[in-house]
Amino acid sequence: MQSKTFTLLVLVAVLPFHASRAQPVEVKHTEGITHGFLILRSLDGRILATGDQIQTVEGNQVTTETVFHFRDGSLHDEIAIFLQDRTLRMLSYHLTQKGPMFPHPIEASLNVPKNEVTIHAGEKNREKDAVEHMDLTPDLVNGIVPTVLKNIRPDGAGTKLPMLVLSAKPRMVHLVIKSIDTNGTYAIAGSHRKALHFQVHIDLGGVAGAVAPLVGKKPPDIHIWLSAGHAPTFLRSQGPLFEGGPIWRIDLAAPQMPETPMK
Fold first, then answer.
1. Structurally, what CATH architecture does the domain formed by 24-252 represent?
2. How far is C-alpha 164 from the geometric centre of its chain's CA atoms?
């Protein structure tokens, strides 16, 4: 055990740390009022939750809420408020996760202009209530990753953006986003159309980033698909919904209307 610990420390010591400054995302597609219907499934196809993504706009301020109601009563609800003018700029974010699906329930929010993070979290049979001050930047992408993907070039060299992981001990990570397939397809009633496939890698950075793969705690990549064309839109995502959680799949859902004959 001592040998393994010593090896880890040596590796951390010699691995270089490169601080990188994320670039704000320029707005190419302005957001409007939308209401999308979502289904969350396990990888074996079981429906775990139904959800909604509701977005409203007032001037250049956008409020987007993504909520999932699980069949076992669990709840995931996240609300992001951001500005869209020349670039995307985060103002605030609120996350609620509770119920049997979430081993570490949390209600947390961040206020970017105030550099303030408020946390109410359950951790190891204890609850934590705290207000912390952190260096928050307006290019945070909490709750708006699909929006970000609409506005980056799929044929670009890649994009690196900050995200605050909200837990009992919040920490800043970077999402390294790259396009891995610009020739994918999806189908509507047998008609095939072009899709874009993005890979989102979570870069822990520093000591945590160096040690995590060696101790089996490297976060899995997230995969997101958008429709291609002049009006890109979300199609599917695949990845964990919380730190250390299982990989789940989120798809758009079509409302099913009753077959009522017209009179």
1. Beta Barrel (2.40)
2. 10
Q: Is 38 helix (H, G, I), strand (E, B) or coil?
A: strand
Please report the beta strands in the chain, taking only residues with DSSP state E, as ranges in sequence order: 34-42, 47-58, 61-70, 75-84, 88-98, 106-111, 116-123, 126-133, 159-165, 171-188, 191-203, 222-227, 234-240, 247-252
User: Residue 184 forms beta bridges with which residues?
Assistant: 195
pLDDT tens track for 81-111: 999 999 999 999 999 999 999 999 999 999 9
pLDDT in tens, 109-134: 999 999 999 999 876 666 778 899 99
Q: Which residues contact 124 (CB under 8 A, 6 or more apart)?
A: none
Write 220-223 long-range contacts (CB < 8 A, 24+). Answer: 220/247, 222/145, 223/197, 223/198, 223/199
With H, G, I as helix, E, B as strand and everything else as coil, classify residue 203.
Answer: strand
Closest CA to 227 of 249, 197, 190, 191: 197
The domain ranges of the chain are 24-252
Give the span between the Cα atoms of 55 and 84, in whole angstroms.
13
Q: How many Cβ atoms from other residues are within 10 Å of residue 124's Cβ?
A: 7
pTM: 0.85
Contact 151, 26 (CB under 8 A): yes
First to last CA, the chain: 78
Question: Would you call 173 helix, strand, or coil by DSSP?
Answer: strand
